[in-house]
Specification:
30 strands; Immunoglobulin-like; eight-stranded parallel β-barrel; six-stranded mixed beta sheet; globular; about 20% helix; TIM Barrel; single chain; alpha/beta; 9 helices; about 600 residues
Amino acid sequence: MTACAETAEDLPVIAQKWEKTTLSFEGPSTSEENTENPFLDYRLMVTFKQGEKTMIVPGFYAADGTAAESGADAGSTWQVRFRPDTEGEWSYQASFRKGKEIAVSDDPEAGEAVAFDGQEGRIKVVAAAEGNEGRIVVGDDHYLHYADSKRIFLKGGADSPENFLAFRDFDGTERGEQAEDREGEATAKDDLHSYEPHVKDWKAGDPTWQDGKGKGMIGALNYLAGKGMNSAYFLTMNIGGDGKDVWPYTGYEERLRFDCSKLDQWEIVFDHMDQLGLMLHIVTQETENERLLDDGDTGLQRKLYYRELIARFAHHLGVTWNLGEENGPASFSPNGQTIPQQKAMATYIKTHDPYKNYLVIHTHSQPAERDEIFDHLLGFPYLDGMSTQVGDPATSHEETKNWRAKSAQAKKPWVINIDEIGHHSRGVDPDDRENNNQDSVRAEVLWGNLMAGGGGVEWYFGWRNHNNDLGCEDWRSRDRVWDFTKHALDFFNNHLSVGEMRSMDQLATGDRSFCMAKEGELYALYFPFGGTTNLDLTAASGTFSVQWYNPRTGGALQSAKITTVTGGEIVAIGEAPQDPELDWAVLIKQSN
């Protein structure tokens, strides 16, 4: 649900807690191409207050205010999008000023006051819709949480196609230049995405624009959410990158003017993602173009780009800001940004995003490259985690444990997600690939990350597979992978108290296994390649139930020959109910 209102000083806007509230203001008549740039030479900021609480939210030029439908590139409407996090009455006051490059100035008195500057109003916020758990926020325990319910958010979703927004139904979307064939990279084809296989997943009442456009993309998101996933990764700018088909600007060569109708159409899709419970994983650049704006600095171009993204999209209930795919370091790549440049980007976003959304950097695949960057970023206050790429999937568990421990020692606990796996030509294979790697990926990456205290995974599709990282049209190509992911999330969400547990692999001896524990009360074991183990319960007392969980099929917990064990000693837990050579999870819980 979205509350929209023209500003009025006599009547309050009515909105639910966590509901998007769009306020429209009538300003000077202008256009995307006007000599006096409406994106750069005007600045709308709206201050929202409730008691001692203050939020200052940037606004944006919105053409005629209905650009998604009209396709307009001109008009006199400015808008701000606000999402209240508490009930009761809020007041607001608009600051609207004009001046050369004022949009990137932090001086509240810069330029001159014009038009509706000083306009005030009220918003009456009522209780949240039933089931709305609130915004996804960063905790201090290596996890994301829902703001109201406090429930931990564990991620499962799609990392491909990275050029998800290269969709033929968006205005102003085309291939900016011919994408060259490069060994080791997916290559964008001549056609933009249509997601035709997912048109059947669009449902009556779902959003479209301009007389029925958008059904393929909306249907694709319906399918992903219907499989129990909660996140999707996409680039918002790949100029000079692999696809060369996604940008927010009015043209491929433009850096200071934005396409109002395209961005409003993106917003329709992002609103639908909110409704479906899908986090927006917004990747702001890729390794090939990280020095495109301001030669990697946070100057005029980059500040304006991030300001527009924040103004239009930061309000969504689940947002990951990703500073860049395979970002830096300069010592490994001549195009790589430096550590000071990375810190400047992170600082700008975190200090200008009124919602303080989760912020990460995507890593390179090799440990030496990760160390080169992230050892220098440990403890940095504006970085919340790692968007990890692992070249060898078998290292996922140890990599997650390693960086979780390092960040804890640095007094800034990071959320450790795995968002890309090697080999880069494969990622996770499609269901129909002979001898596909899905079973090993499930064991080593998905369960490996979660059992180490990680925040979850998104699946990258490689470049040699069909439905690959740039060419994916059908998420059903990995239907089994979504099922495996949901089974894992179900186990962790329904049976464990992960915020109170720690990776304690040392408690399990025998066949290779992972162990999480709230010692003395609750233990979870996982066998990536089958087998059994002995569990050290010498620090525990009482009786513990032993139940097994099938990560391949999900469902109810199962019993095997050994149904209970006793604390105070090292105990054998026995074998799985069937197929002991395959991967299984075990839940061992104090029963008295």
